[in-house]
Amino acid sequence: MPRFTTVALVAGAALLVRRAVRSRMSTAPLWPMPALDTPVSGYGRGSTVPRKVLVAGRATPAEGVVELRLEGAGLPAWQPGAHVDLVLPSGLVRQYSLCGDPDDGDAYTVATRLIEDGRGGSREVHEQLHEGVEIEIRGPRNRFPLVDSPAYVFVAGGIGITPVLPMLRAAEAAGADWRLVYCGRSRATMPYLEEITRLGGDDRVTVVAEDESGFPELEFLGRLPADTAVYCCGPDGLMDAVGAAMPEGRAPRLERFTAAATVGGTAFEVELRRSGRTLTVAADQSLLSAVREELPGITYSCRQGFCGTCRQRVLEGEVDHRDELLTDDERADSMLICVSRCSGKRLVLDL
Amino acid sequence: MSNTQPAPVASEHVELKARKVSFDWEETPLHWVPGDPFTTHTINVLHLLLPAGERWFVHVYKQALPYITDDRLREDVIGFIGQEAIHSQAHDDVLPHLRKLGLDPTPYTAQVDWFFEKLLGDRTLPPGRPRRWWLMERVALIAAIEHYTAFLGDWVLNADALDRVGADPTMLDLLRWHGAEEVEHRAVAFELFMHLDGGYRRRARTWALAFSALVFLWQRGIRFFMENDPSLLDPKASFADFVRKGRQGVLPSTPAMLRSIPRYLSRAYHPSQEGDTAQAMAYLASSPGANGGR
What we know:
The structure holds two protein chains of two kinds.
Chain A: H1 2-27, E1 51-62, E2 65-71, E3 82-87, E4 93-97, E5 107-113, H2 121-128, E6 134-142, E7 151-157, H3 161-173, E8 177-184, H4 193-204, E9 205-209, H5 210-213, E10 228-233, H6 236-245, E11 253-254, E12 268-272, E13 277-281, H7 287-294, E14 311-316, E15 319-320, H8 328-331, E16 334-336, E17 341-342, E18 346-349
Chain B: H1 37-64, H2 71-92, H3 95-100, H4 106-119, H5 129-158, H6 160-164, H7 169-184, H8 188-196, H9 200-228, H10 239-248, H11 254-265, H12 277-286
Helix pairs in contact in B: 1-2, 1-4, 1-5, 1-9, 2-8, 5-7, 5-8, 5-9, 7-12
């Protein structure tokens, strides 16, 4: 019977193949599939996992300032100028610059000043974050990176010294020429004074305490050589004064912590380079909705900056990143257009 | 003939949106179903397949979006894309924890990455019909896979046996949040396929492909985990174990899985005919992970 022979042959062949595959797989269990050279899965951003740290140390480096040592496992590396978001016990989220040692992989250090009439974040840090308390942090992120430069001028006001402190250490270690103007209400309220004077001595560090010598002299900023990088962090008044003292056409690098804006903003222009179109995004409109009018097929989903579907490549322009997903590296050349906007007048997207 | 047309159950339709989630793996042990490595690893295979698989869903659906001419379906697909993107991220974030526990999944996941990004990825095809054919083939594959994710989602929402054996609450929450969203959006992939193509032969062909691929990848994943589990001296996994655990209720039952095959292949099939949206929504409202990790 030909049918019987066929069935027997097929069954026999199947058994042989099964035996061959089994013996091959017993020596190499993952045979026979190829693998991607650079695996993608398992090396994500960790955006769905909360990062917990333990308040392991609490100190008072100056009047009204507490310094917290936050210990955790597998903390990401950071560079001077970086900050973390602290999720406080009440749910408030506040940003604080990292002021410890970037080489310390087991802990972050932050310092905060109690602001009596503030929005409540610093009060919570001072009153509730005692040793042994566990909190969630997000980040670190860096919007205030230290660029390579032969010379630096730093201007810090009060607690604004926190992002600057690791910069001073890095500049000193790199053998760069640096100067610091450190202002504050009085010496007793200015944290890390001793370490800073030890680091730079009187020729690099100028301490301007308001109760001794009033306000800082900033005219020298107008005469700085073009290759000197200027960094400033402190009260708005100080940052404005530094901006005004800079030569025409130059701006200082600033770190400003304000309540994170999530809605609205100013109007700006966006050029969609591949489509050859330019449109205006109104102040009360998201970049996504403006782009959708031109390109209805554009992909998006959550519209809240966490799913990542609407990520687009940025070719030109300063982005005001408001998402919760992208890493600093990803932010360098891309953005989530559902929530992020332009911090200048014009953006160019690869669309 | 009314019984040969897919008939959606209107009351099962809800507006879809991605939910932000948070899962803390710190306390989750290697064998998160206590004393039952086989069940643990059988379910763990999800973490091997879903990060790459659901990233691929998003990738394919982004290309399918411009072809949709129905506004309500487009909204559904947009919601679906966001949910799948978050599922992929959430399962991906389990993998570093497994690595920390001494079970590095990378040799396997690198192959799954290859499977979805190269084998099932975009191909250099001439524009026009061939390109559209490959897109439709993948849209149909996703519809078939989603039949199983909805089946598993419905199963895990009702798998009380996992609670009884004391499975890790965080892992159960991840599975049930994911399962509930799969139940919630179970009709989208099928409706998209019916909207763009709907051919019965393609539906049957891609079902066979998806089913074989799932069985192949799954059994391989279980054996990979069992063999590389640092705490197991005698790593054995067999189909009989699977059937037995299915009977105990800690894994889906084999007869129920077999019964779901003819349902997908029925011409009158519509995903809204099975699963319970109200149960899924109720779970999502109380899931700790989907409500800010509380």
